[in-house]
Design brief:
about 15% helix; CDC48_domain_2-like_sf; flat; about 140 residues; ATP binding; single chain; Vcp-like ATPase, Chain A, domain 2; Cdc48_dom2; CDC48 domain-containing protein; ATP-binding
Amino acid sequence: GVAPGDIALGKVHREWARIGMGTPVFVKQFVPPPAFDLGSCKVEIDHFIKPAASDSRIEIKDEDIEAVFSQRFDKQVLSNSQVLVLDFEGKTLKLTIVGLAPVDIGDGKAQSKVPSGMFTTMSELDLQNGPSGKLHIL
């Protein structure tokens, strides 16, 4: 278990945050500011472990993975370039956040990109195929 006062980070989290094993870190509570919800989130999806050249390509329906993503990451703060790992139907997938935009409030202004925000079930999800070419989003 994790002792009181300690924080446990997995390999993916440590790599993304550039924190070594056993490295002391200072943390403080984050209170999301007003209008922090994401309007859209662009995610690149690929295999977590690079497939062999001889492995066949797998296909995943976008609506199936969207439902799982929305359930698992609702109310989660996401940042550009953040890597997530998801077990989807027995397949370990690597999800990389490649674009975030705020909620469009309909004021006619062009939507800007944001570095981070809170994903909600109302956020639009744009799924893209990863670079391996071995996973195809339908």
